[in-house]
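W.,

You were right to be curious about this one. When I first looked at the sequence I had no strong expectations either way, so I just let the prediction run and decided to look at it fresh. Below is the sequence, 270 residues in total, followed by the output.
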Amino acid sequence: MKQRIITALWGIPLLLAFIYFDTHWFPLIVFLIAAFAIAGAVEFYRLAALSEGQPFTIFGIVWVMLFVASAHFERLDFTSSLLASAVALPLIFSFGFRREKPFLSWGWTLAGILYMGWMLSRYVALRELAHGRELVIFAIFSTFACDTVAFFVGRAWGKHHMTPTISPKKTWEGAVAGFIAAPAAALVLHIILNLGGWELPLSYAQTTILGCLIGLFAQLGDLLESLLKRKAGVKDSGSLIPGHGGILDRIDSLVFTGVIVYYYVIWVVV
């Protein structure tokens, strides 16, 4: 617990600095997301290898970086080409290198690219929308609120296990508390971010709906990563972050919520 608090004390201000001072000519958010995506891809492919998935790790990491970069340059044609090559090339490699289970190798490689590359790249795209700074802060800290409340409530009062075969420590009490915390935090952030010169381009109703979606998908992302670790037979995805485990252990819930907030904004709000 002490390590978790220490990590949060230096990690949160650093994260805010990267989001706040990011500019089009000096894209700090791209470097930050790329670092998380690469580290996460390394851990993901390690879990895949432990699960006998035989992924093409180097290829996957390179394509993860390209997806993050393409989100900054806003090249739809390039992104489409990346997606096509991400689907086709691993399949060709799987048969060309005569993998024992070619479709399994192809599936794990492609999953890592989409999971760490395309999905995390939505944070870059979100940051570059109008009021992107506020939207990224909204997405990240609503998710953090969901995670934190779910953790502490589940630890203190959790009695009914949610998915004992996937994540034995997760409880329904914690899950419900986390789901409620997300829209509550979203509304608080709405008030705070609309003070001064900041502006969150959401109505209170939209904020509440988006908060509920964050509360749902943050926990689904957490469960997915727990399933990957269970399949690989490990407790943590890595040991890079003191008190938290690996990068995937920290960003698992953020992966889905970035996608949800981005597409909600461009499909519903804009």
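Here's what jumped out at me. The chain has two domains: 1-20+130-270, 25-127. And, maybe more interesting for your project: The chain has a mean pLDDT of 88.

Coffee later to discuss?

I.
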